[in-house]
Known about the structure:
The structure holds two protein chains of two kinds. By secondary structure, chain A is an alpha/beta fold. Chain A has helices at about 45-55, 85-90, 115-125, 130-140, 150, 160-175, 190-210, 220-225, 245-250, 255-260, 305-310, 330-340; strands at about 5-15, 20-30, 35-40, 65-75, 75-80, 95-100, 180-185, 210-215, 230-235, 235-240, 315-320, 320-325. In chain A, the strands form two sheets. An eight-stranded mixed beta sheet of chain A has the order 6-7-8-3-9-10-12-11, with helices on both faces. Chain A has a four-stranded antiparallel beta sheet with strand order 2-1-4-5, with helices on one face. In chain A, strand 1 (about 5-15) and strand 2 form a beta hairpin. Chain B is mainly alpha-helical. Chain B has twelve helices and four strands; from the N terminus they run H-H-H-E-E-E-E-H-H-H-H-H-H-H-H-H. Chain B has helices at about 1-30, 45-55, 60-75, 100-135, 140-155, 160-170, 190-225, 230-235, 240-270, 270-275, 285-295, 295-325, and strands at about 75-80, 85, 95, 100. In chain B, a hairpin with a 4-residue loop joins strand 3 (about 95) and strand 4. Chain B starts with a helix and ends in a 7-residue tail after the last helix. The interface between A and B is medium-sized, with 28 and 20 residues.
Amino acid sequence: MKPFLEVKNLSVSFPTQDGLVKASNDISFSVARGETLAVVGESGSGKSVTTLAVMGLHNRNAANISGQAILNLETGPVDTISANPEVVRKLRGKSMAMIFQDPMSALHPYYSIGDQIAEAWGLYNEGSKADGLKRAVEMLDLVGIPGASKRVKEFPHQFSGGMRQRVMIAMALVNNPSLLIADEPTTALDVTVQSQILKLLKDMQEEFNMAVILITHDLGVVAEVADRACVMYAGKIVEQSAIDDIYYMPDHPYTIGLLNSIPRVDQLEGKRLQAIPGQPPSLISLPRGCSFRSRCTYSELVPNNKCATDVPNLDEKISGHFSRCHLTEAQLVKARSSAGGQA
Amino acid sequence: MFKFIAKRLTATVLVVTLVSMSVFLIFAFLPMDPARLTCGKGCSVPVIEANRHRLGLDVPVQVQYGRFIKGLFLGREYGDGAAKIECSAPAFGYSFNKHECVTTLIKSALPVTFSLAIGAFILWLSLGISLGVLAARRQGKWQDRASTVFVLVGISLPTFISGILIYLVALRLNLINPIEAGRWVSPFTNPIGWVKNFYLPWIVLALAFAATYTRFTRSNVIETSSEDYIRTARAKGLSEKVILRKHTLRAALAPIVTIAGLDFAGLLGGAIITEQIFNLPGLGRLSLRAVLIDYDLPVIVSTTILAATFVVVMNLVVDILYAYIDPRVRVG
Lengths: 343, 332
């Protein structure tokens, strides 16, 4: 069976006065129903831009988008990049849904949460407003909001951050979408609430058999919920593999750097966290060669200064494990062990 | 919500009382003697004093205020015997210049001012908001630039210039009959005549106000459009039309309710310049004449208190409306 979403060579750039901002570059990935793909990377690495393009949420006058994002619907495949905007609009909320980073500002402050969920339901279902509100109560119940039948009439400002994110999830799932894109759903929340929301997402995925794309900058978030991960850097995917491989056999120096910068419970006391030195490059004028070169600790291992001249390809080094790096597998094994800690 | 309204209502009554007191005090201590002005040159002291008594100005100011308030609720009598004058409640006082109860004067002026205000209000709101939305949606396009020109002209052209210009042009084109104009026509008996009477001053006032509203609407719509909840609405699959109407405008226009309410209240107090140009016998002209020509104290005090009351009451209406629009404001 084909995966539900297939993204092929997707590039998004924004013309600005200073030049063309290449926000995401030649991105390819796929997600099947029931599967969770984590898209990991720091701010500005192109995670959100890529998924917003899939959803058709970019202003087509302000963004240059190329490539394909194919939804394999029961009625046949639709490319959300090239399809008529009106066709894509009617897929939003129904076949693909999205939740956002800041639940404080993502809900309309002037409408009750019941109204907002019922509005989403009413778009794709026949029925009165009362039916919509009834459905809203069911959804709120499902996402674990206590006293849903009472709280459905309340307004967003009467909910805490975690509860609002639950409301967002209820609203996104009300039409039983096949794909859910969660754009940093836990970033604005407390740590304890974070894990509750992640667990809820996991439960909902099982309940609705959805394909889930989880965007995050926090590798710690990903471990428990994701099946596979894409690591993005400067608008490109630099590593893509099953989630365990990302943790235990990271193949790209950037991923290794990210892992080293996470505090670990099993780490020796008194050992300092290793930050990745430097800043990501400007997306307007990417350097020649590898975008990560200036921050990479291992680039001198590669002969002939290849990192400065050749853009590495996203190669499949081991089956199912892709990495965009000139280092050989043997050099990487050495790099991993010298970074220490990653068994 | 009920508690909220009750609280605001109490505050409003309090403010109106304070405003009426201060207005009364200000005019009581002005270095003008209304009694002296009641008769011409060669007026003798006994006549002045008699008039002072008739005007009710021979008692301390707090007693005057008490009588004023009492008159508002119970009506008031001036003089006695054959010269007795009765003004029924709500009595604002008696104008010895016009030989008329102030309430009667206000009653005839108020419909004119109200007609002027409501028509201009509807016109400038629809013009300002639609132009503002258009400019925001076509940001940077010719529609946006055209609206900027309109805004600049509207803001920089004072009503005494635009009013006179429009009046002159209308005269030239025979759109206005200077003899007929200014005669009060009720919209209930003769709606067409009413519109004919008022459409030019409406345009003058609307031009002045619509410019501000265009600018305000434009920036609010642009700002709201980039809010996260608008992105959420789009992600839900709503059409752009519904997003604009239901999500963007609701949030973008909420602050406009506040300024629109207060602008309208201000106009209810009388559009002095426009009423003067178009010879409309409204509150503005009534107060202007009372101040400049007659020094008609009861009229001045009454129209001032009335204008202030309009603002305070409209403020209350705006507060309630705003609480209805924005649930975050509804605090117990």
